[in-house]
């Protein structure tokens, strides 16, 4: 069944009941919806991030080569909120690491603003699933870190730290250490730290997976607000379909190992969306049906005889 | 308060026992000195500045030697930890070299540098370099990978990455190695100083033997223990405490 999946399948548009014909722009609810390009068919010239024929394979500890990503083609518009969903082991986190430049792909090309990615750059900041906040620095120093590396002056650093910590409502905690904060607060510090380097592209790797539902709802609202205020391009990886629909302009579904683009869904629902909304639930069902197929496949593989180790490519180093 | 009281009781008993044994005169006083004899010796030693000079000379040597060890050991340890070839080759060599008591470098140092400061410094460095190197290597490996990735992701490169990310991230894992390195440096120094006219504490200790002054021998031994304790207790303990506080590792006390 996986063999006949096209790499760039035609997008399925999930229309909002209140605006069935209009295609949602990135800031449809907050600003003029000026972008009228067909979703899913972003031409490479205007794409903020363009992935073409990305493959990644790596050697397992057993010595065999494992294909993690298989000819991924994806164009992301400037200012777009793109969500990537898939079963665990589909390589969606790895994809973000590749875009961040933390790990080289085996073949294919990643373009950001038309330039190939060669290593990490301040234009793309990844928020790790484990956050990776520095425990030896205070909240303020964490937020300042990227700017310090770039050589931004102290006065400007202070000003921006204040701005971004206020944006995530954590200014009064600037002198705290990260272990003194709750999970949701740490999440916001990581967000502020990433935003403070003022990247064009924000890469988020299941950032809210470990949070309770209430905190997650709040952070969804905040993230959407910040996205609207700052106009960043966001690529957001999650295994939670509803979360993807709550946030994304477009949802890309990856197949289980090797990761391929199984289908793209354009989410044309008015913002702000509510997780419990019927339309969200309705949209989620279509994606969930396809996702379930992949999850079943992953379970089949993992419970069958030769359990293949599934490692992130970074884990072997 | 309770702890202080226990300490006072313990040391009072210890000195009381010492005084009692000395008073009983089981052994002649030139073999078993009295506490007050030793105290008097300490007083004389400090008032004619000979102990101050010995302490200054020894501390200067150990600080220089230890500083070189720390810098070289960190670079070496980091290199070994981040390079598979070095790890496989140098790693084993380093561990086996550590089984060599540092004073075994003394003959070699004498031939290379002659009977002088450099030879002592060499022995001190050889004594502490390896434990710092191994601690750094271990710390680098234990350090969660996420910090290095997060640092690179935020734009840190090369030396910046080492100084602002890798070093602070591995500090909790290497602080015990740094402490051990200090202890080795201190021991190697005193041993080396005992072997020739060097002005340091080790030599003052040997002078006590040569003049059959048991009071001086005990007095200098107390000095060496005291200095070691002060550095460990004040510098390393407070460093550990600060690290634990920052990282949130402090137990609720």
Question: What would you say this structure looks like, in words?
Answer:
The complex is a heterodimer of chains A (317) and B (253). With 317 residues, chain A is α/β, with parallel strands linked by helices. Chain A has 2 domains: 9-123 and 201-304, Rossmann fold (3-Layer(aba) Sandwich), CATH 3.40.50; 133-198, no CATH class. In chain A, 32% of the residues lie in helices and 21% in strands. Chain A has 7 helices and 11 strands. In chain A, strand 5 and strand 6 (115-116) form a beta hairpin. In chain A, helix 2 crosses helix 3. In chain B, 82% of the residues lie in helices and 0% in strands. Chain B has helices at 2-24, 35-47, 50-82, 84-98, 106-113, 117-142, 145-153, 158-193, 201-210, 214-247. In chain B, helix 9 (201-210) runs antiparallel to helix 10 (214-247). Chains A and B meet through helix 2 of A and helix 7, helix 8 and helix 10 of B.
What is the strand and helix layout of this fold?
The complex is a heterodimer of chains A (317) and B (253).
Chain A: E1 12-15, E2 49-59, E3 65-76, E4 81-85, H1 92-100, E5 107-112, E6 115-116, E7 124-127, H2 139-150, H3 154-167, H4 183-196, E8 201-205, H5 213-230, E9 233-238, H6 241-247, E10 250-254, E11 261-268, H7 278-303
Parallel strand pairs in A: 1-11, 4-9, 4-10, 7-8, 8-9
Antiparallel strand pairs in A: 2-3, 2-5, 5-6, 10-11
Chain B: H1 2-24, H2 35-47, H3 50-82, H4 84-98, H5 106-113, H6 117-142, H7 145-153, H8 158-193, H9 201-210, H10 214-247
Q: Runs of chain B with pLDDT <50, length 5+?
A: none
- Helical content of chain B, roughly? over 70%
CATH topology of the largest domain in chain A: Rossmann fold
Number of helices of chain B: 10
Count all strands of chain A and give the number: 11
Tally of alpha and pi helices of chain A: 7
Structural class of chain B: mainly alpha
The proportion of strand residues of chain B reads under 5%
Give the oligomeric state: heterodimer
Terminal CA distance of chain B reads 15 Å
Helix and strand succession of chain A?
A: EEEEHEEEHHHEHEHEEH
Strand order of the largest sheet of chain A: 1-11-10-4-9-8-7
- Here the CATH topology of chain B equals MetI-like fold
Count of domain modules of chain A: 2
